[in-house]
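Retro notes
What went well: the complex prediction finally ran end to end.
Inputs used:
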Amino acid sequence: MVRKKNHARVIFHIDMNCFYASVEIAANPKLKGKPLAIAGDPRERKGIIVTSSYEARAKGIKTTMPLWQARKLCPELIVLKPDFDKYRAASRKIFTMLSQVTPRIQPVSIDEGYMDVTEVAAEHDPIAIAVNLQKDIFKQLQLPSSIGIAPNKFLAKMASDMKKPLGITILRKRDIPQKLWPMPIGDMHGVGVKTAEKLDKIGVQTIGDLAHADIYQLKRLLGINGERLRNRANGIDNNPVDPDAVNEFKSIGSSQTLPEDTVDPREIQKWLSILAENVERRLKRKQAAGKTIQLMLRYHDRKTITRSKKLPDYIDQKEDMIQITNDLLQKHWDGEPIRLIGITVQDAEEKKSILKQLDLFSYEKEETKAKLDHTIQALNQKYGKDVIRKSDGIHKGDTDLRTSFQKDVLMDYQKSDD
Amino acid sequence: MKFTIQQSTLMSSVQDVMKAISSRTATPILTGMKIEAKENGIVLTGSDSDISIESYIPAESDDNVNVENIEPGSIVLHARYFPEIIRKLPENNVEFEADENFRVTIRSGKAEFNLNGQNAEEYPQLPIVHTDNSFEMPIALLKQMIKQTSFAVSAMETRPILTGVNISLKDNILNFTATDSHRLASKEIPVEADGLAFSNVVIPGKSINELNKTLDDSEDTVEIYVTNNQILFKTRHLNFLSRLLDGNYPETSRLIPNQVKTVIYAKTKDLISTIDRASLLAREERNNVVKLSTSGQQTLEISSNSPEIGNVTEELTVTAIEGEELKISFSSKYVLDALKAIDVEDVKIDFTGAMRPFIIRPTNEEKILQLILPVRTY
């Protein structure tokens, strides 16, 4: 590659519009044009909206809104339970189509990703590439998307958000003062509620304010991230599109808002066990194990605590997670009603890069386990993936939550690639 | 109290006793050193309540006069100042004197130190070991047993009993065993113990290492007294008393496998240098892992790979390989520790499978055994 270092890059950010709802509509055209929501569990009074169609959004329905509230706003709302297998399959098809344009793709979630089309753009008009890609995805999969075109990832991400659905937005560096700077700071990618609050205190209300804010003041306020955000506000972002970024997972978790706030230990135990099961399944899917366990509790007043424990060994079994999170719970729960529980396994690594020093007092157990793993692997190799798994009594998918689930999919896409 | 002594004689005793004194102790007076003058000599005492050391300087030995002008009495001096003062005295002759107000005067040459001491009656009485359960062995042999086993004690407090060396005596065979659960070191020697037997005597790792440092390389013997919570090592001029660890030491002998799948005979020195080279690219946070695989009847391949650093492979010709082919990963540190501790020219390694312990022994079957658990790679 003989390319000048300063040569401008051409980056796409592609974002699927109302992805879960769109996949449902594509699968069942009767839903088209109707207000549709995907919610955690419609039977639960406090199920939460995961996503909704534009028709539903027009009625004021928003992601994370409790279902009962959504029903009040829109009594004719059609509510579906999430079907993650279906979404995963659709996502895989999308990323396969993207990979036909360029191999330089960095998926960031089940329904969005970056593409570095610099080399392709040397021969083809990037706008034409984007238009064709968007059309192809819509024609073949009936799924709407928005594409942002820019010289870096940050601007591409901001651009894809500017016009939905089926938008294509070009954001050049010279467009920044007119298009980016007037936007409220909370709409900037990478600025969360907390950061926005902090910035507000030093009088930063728009992206433009941030672009011109004092760099030392920002560093004091936000640390190294302050400088990075300011650079981005000025349109500077040198992060490459990294096809391997998705492999660098460090934590895998699952959390759940409870149907009702509870102080009932049995209820809490039940959820710990369900969440541990979810985390175990994700770890197994990724062939990973982790060395730190974190318990998250959100109380009825939204006060949230996280407490974690570092372990001497890598774990991937739900029994271990239940035991450790239970210890953490006993130690740190102040007895207030709990609204949300989360379990996260941190310091996660792929098993193939994990080494385990065997122990004199337990090596025989480990040996039996290894033999079983080996047999399962051999059978799966012979008869196809997932023919056999260790029996763990999982009800597939129904307690999965969005964010962690998305990460899993990205691994899937890469596997399907080879 | 009063005595006159040679600085060098006093200093070597002070150094021994200092090994038991800790500046962090729950009993403040234990930060001091007890000095006791008796008609026939001087006794220095230090203790951190786990270990207590008494050093005895006889007034006369082998026609030498060590201590003169003795007026009996005792005092406690702070261990932070006393040893440094003795070390730096200008002349070899030291006059030591304490009055009834616990004020101490140390004179040497033209230097005179006045120190405030403490009442020796406040110093805790060391437990007196009342037992006839004792046996004798050469100091050199005891030191060797310690060196060959104590490195394998656990540094983790998760299983406190494993932080000690387990000592047992049966049928006039003395056994030392230490394990941190990842490796195990065991050594046996015959002693003349008159049929004395005990088991589950676990000496804290720290005590046994201090003992090893305190005992001189000499041809003398040490008398060992065992009770159910104390052990006393007694030499001519030294009493070394240690508390024992509470709890049951796991029965390790049944954990040592006896069926063998692969046997390697090799020169210890060759193994050490090859594994040491391979470990240059093994990272500590990844257990210093090195891989070993056999190839044919006489060749080992030893390798290590750290993706972000690089990799190394080395072939080593060994004396012989018998049995099944083998691929195994292990901590290079554990194997090097074991090979160095064995300290013989030729070793025999019995492998029992890639996920099972392997055992390193001298080829000529001395009663020493180094067992190591491999590292599982998924």
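What we learned: The longest strand of chain A covers residues 288-299.
What to try next: split runs per interface for comparison.
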